[in-house]
Amino acid sequence: MLSLGHLSPSTITPNNLQGLLIEIKDKLPKYLELTNDPKENLWFFYRFLTCSTILYDSRILVVISIPLLDSNNKFEIYQAFNLPMPMQKNHTNIGMVAKYDLDVEYFAVNAERSKYVLLKQQEIQSCTNTFTKFCKIISPVYPINLSKNCITSLFLKKRNDIDKYCRVVVEPNSVLPMASYISSGSWLVTTNTPLRFAIVCEKYKQKTTFTKIINPPLNILALNETCTATNDYLTLLPFYSRQSSYTLEDDPFTKVIQNYNLTMRKLWKPFHDSLPKFNLTELPKELKNIKEIPMDNLIYQLKNLQTIQEDSSFPNWVYNVIYLVISLLLGIIIFILCKYRKKLPCSAKRGSGCKMQNVAPKYDRVSQLVSAKTEGDVNTSRDVPSAPMLDNSKEEVANNLYPLLKLAEQTVRI
After folding, report:
1. Both ends of the chain: CA-CA distance in Å?
2. pLDDT tens-place string over residues 44-80
3. Could you confirm whether the keyword Membrane appears in this record (predicted)?
4. Based on CB atoms within 10 Å of each CB, which residue in 1, 129, 172, 265 is the most buried?
5. CA–CA separation, 150 vs 155, rounded Å?
6. Residues 281-300: b if buried by 16+ CB within 10 A, e if exposed
7. CA distances (Å), 160 to each of 153, 163, 164, in order?
């Protein structure tokens, strides 16, 4: 045992150890004390005392480390269970839960409630050891009356400080139901629908089975030793201990449920005040990949949504078929209109083009006749026509133009 650094009766006899501890106790100042009474519980020191060896002058010296307690700094260790609160007025299947944003899980408060310590991770294991009941604290000690921390405000139940220093965060994609283990077979169950648990207990080779219903939104499920609770959503495993079992007259966890309604209303009050008609059955895409979001930001995001579409009782494939049929009908109508409008102008142009081929030579001929007769000296007197040959061609041009105009009129009527 000496090689392992653990103190044992073979290293120092009980009489020698007891005499050494009593001598140390008598010489300690008033504010320091031993971790236990060496006269009544000597074996306690053998269980946790450690030692080391030093080779000195051909001898092995055994150095025993004996911890001393400061009687002026006695603290109680607390663990904060950050309970997720589902929406009380939630008539949908959205699993949004709200909770306080706490910086630490474990903290210590002195008996006078005047000082507190926020425990670090390396301190938690030693300070939560139920056997030793003492630990070395390396974190600073703060005055509790000047605290601006959320966890101390909740501990002292100061409503004004809670509103001022506690920030509420929302987990928009939580999977409900959920359960958190407290201690000694007690589970904290959060759900938005009633849960029926089948509880099976095995004791002395006998199996007993019964059911228990957990109502939403939050409740405590206390299991005895060897008991397992199961339903379609989750299974709560049993616990075992070598100590005798007993039943507390006043369950300390019932106070959590008694204070639940007040806390839940306080957490979700800003949400319901800002969104009194909230009835979404599915969260927007912007919130699906977010683990948690502050309550103020969630309200802002939901308010800025331009349209909130409610889920219909029809499946998605019905909408897809309707969209496909409407698209096909619109395509057919557009195709028929384009084809009809393209065919009508083309037929009109084709007919007028043929007639213009016959008209063009006639106008060319007229222009030639006019230019031929205007060469040389021209009599400007109004008694003699300036283009005598034009009179001879009037009848011929009229005869040619009349059938063309008549044919064009028939074409337009068609």
Report:
1. 121
2. 888 888 888 888 888 888 888 888 998 888 899 999 9
3. yes
4. 172
5. 9
6. eebeeebeeeeebebeebbe
7. 9, 5, 6
